[in-house]
Amino acid sequence: KLDTAELLEIQKKLGFGLECWYGVMETAIEAVLEERKKRE
Predict the structure, then answer these.
(1) CA nearest to 18, candidates 4, 29, 32, 34
(2) Model's pTM, two decimal places?
(3) Which pLDDT tens digit goes with each residue over 19-39?
């Protein structure tokens, strides 16, 4: 498991913060849930 300091270093290298990452994940999860609703 990575510790917080390692995660922050990786984020700096990648050039984006956690807010951005969570935003992307949230959008992806919502899209999946919408697809499931359509199928039901």
Answers:
(1) 4
(2) 0.44
(3) 777 788 888 999 999 999 999
Q: Reduce the secondary structure of the chain to three states and give it as a string.
A: CCCHHHHHHHHHHHCCCHHHHHHHHHHHHHHHHHHHHHHC
Which structural domain, as residue segments, surrounds residue 10? 4-39
Taking a C-beta distance cutoff of 8 angstroms, is the pair 27, 35 a contact? Answer: no
Residue 39 vs residues 6, 30, 34: alpha-carbon distances, Å: 40, 14, 9
How distant, in Å, are the alpha carbons of 9, 12, 31 from that of 28? 25, 23, 5
Do residues 24 and 30 make contact, with C-beta atoms less than 8 angstroms apart?
Answer: no
